[in-house]
Design brief:
alpha/beta; 7-stranded mixed β-sheet; 33 helices; 15% strand; globular
Amino acid sequence: MRKRIQRVAVLGAGVMGSRIACHLANAGLQVWLLDMVPPALNEKEKQQGLTTENPSFRNRIVHDALQAAIKSKPSPIFHQNVLQRIRTGNFEDDLPRIAECDWIIEAVVEQLPVKQSLFERVEQYRKPGTYVSTNTSGIPIHLLAEGRSSDFRQHFCGTHFFNPPRYLPLLEIIPGPDTQPEMIEVLNQLGDRVLGKTTVICKDTPAFIANRIGVFSMMLVFRLMEQQGWKIEEIDALTGPLIGHPKSATFRTADVVGIDTMVHVARGLYENCPHDEQRDIFQVPGFLQQMVSNQRLGDKTGAGFYKKTKSADGQSEILVLRLDTQEYTPRQKFQHPAIEQAKNIGTLTERLQFLHGLKDRVGEFFRHFTYGLLAYVSHRIPEIADELYKVDDAMRAGFGWEMGPFEIWEALGVEPTIAAMEALGLKPAPWVKDMVNKGCKQFYARENGRVQYYDLQERGYRPVPGSQELILLRNFSQQVLWQNAGTTLYHVGDGVLNLAIHTKMNTIGSEVIQGIQKALEWAEAHYEGLVIGQEAPNFSAGANVALILTLALEQEWDELAAAVQAFQQTSLHIRYAPVPVIVAARGLTLGGGCEFCLHADAVQAHAETYMGLVEVGVGLIPAGGGTKEMTYRASIAYRQGEIDLPKLQERFLTVAMAKVSASAAEAFDLQLLRPGHDQVTMNANRLLAEAKQRVLEMARRGYVPPTPPRIKVLGREALGLFLTGIYAMQEGQYISEHDAKVAKKLAYVMSGGDLSEATEVTEQYLLDLEREAFLSLCGEAKTLERLQSVLKHGRPVRN
């Protein structure tokens, strides 16, 4: 029987330990979080008359660490209720409690003697067969297990979480020489399905996989910067989203990680990798050593490569370090015509090809950086992993790269890249040429939604384990049924269609409306049902603001009214289609994206779903059916015996305050997701597959679309309450005159208009009201100012 993990002890409540505990609790596990007893009473405790036997003193370190984690931004928890699953204690009084646990995670300071000493104490209390793991980022697993019993060693491994554990999905699992395979399989499945992690099983080599490659790439950038004469902000402009890396790029990432931490890892790799052909890259450059000496360690000291300060007029200003003088100066924007051109290239593959083909110093940088990185990675197989897909998985999940190294190589062309490398004096590992000579021209083979990788031992392709359980749309390129500029319709097997949105920020304009209508037509005619969703980080940032603004400024009211009506009818089509429609939501699910969710048969939401009806923020109200739907959901609550006004008021405030959930769990609190109906997926890689299963479950039960409801609205009873509250907020100067105007329009719609008594109305009645209110607000100068501000600055101006 496979071991079940329900109770976990986390030993060490520092930055990593406390946040690992929070994420385990996010996933529904019961957690004990333990740390040291303080060495002595502090002044506050002495004034309170506490003794060293008082629990509040003895648990001070763990309590303060957990509170600091909870207050940190971004939050490590999905919901405040998560904290009910975390209990705190100390190593002296509570270590025996580990006997109750199924898994013990060590997360104390990164020093071998300290960890070994703790494991000696752990062995006194753990039950035989209990799993023990270490969160070390680089200490060899076999050294940590030395001196322990046979049972301990058989149930011991590394589990390297990446910081912050809630948001970075990589979990490296590192077996020791004696680790039982069953333990690795159990933690692999737990990490994947329960914790929502991309689990990568690594070899016990220095820094494992992600940090070995990630730190090399950063150290390579440092060397190229010095050789080619680049500035810090120029490098960050080149090594961020432009090439599919996070916005933090190179130097901002270093500030977040900590300059001292990066130096420590680089030195460790230099010392522990004597046979690495690029070992010299890990020698710490002088400017880094000087920064550590000057305590310029990044965010932890308030100054690193960047420093945030206040200008003479009190405005926040970002300064950047000049490495030659070690002085801070104002950050300069890097402008280059080819960079601006590249930003307008839609796909990452095409953008990478363009950038590496440039004949100037930008192209020279990219060729030296990318080809150097790819050559290095090829030589790490099979040193750090036998399977190349693990390297790609680790870099995507641990460093946030859109493509892993071998995927980048494919995007640039395997054979042309080999030739380009050699032209720069770089040599890929011999197995790469052997692969090509055998007729295997790619690292991956994709067909019918399945993906295979080139295996060095077999010298041929093998299926990526578990890939058959996932829906990764890049593997379904041969199953495209229809597409336009903003959407693509795939057949993802078993008679289920998947519509992917791929506009900028997946905003909703006419092409998306057309795509959804076309997908529904195909599904109704030939298929079991439809999933709307994609692998991109965000489901949808909402309606196309530029389109609304253009039509409003040009006073094309008939065209704008037609566009709003088409949006509303698309929402209704989602609701009443004769086949099940599931929305797979993740990341930003705002405005119109949220409205589609409200009308779907069900939402399969990733745990990191930030959902809300945010139109009020730009001086409008939801008009794709969102205002109607929130009114309807209050009506459902009345029928279930709830008191009328409070339920309507809750939903009114959700819309009027443009509330956005900080997780899928919070979306249930906002009544945007429905308990027992909508579901949450922890692992983003499984989201589309689990949405597909929902479609099939509904279809196999014999799907029947819902009957259009009669909606109870409260008329003047609700309107009077809302108007009184709005007046008080305006008089107290909590909202502007324009905010009050928008809130009154919303109140009018959600009350069902100026009706003398509670009345049952149709959906179309409310849709007409919300459309009229939306159009009237589009003519307001203050609304137009806010829309223009969103386009220019990414946020509305307060007016």
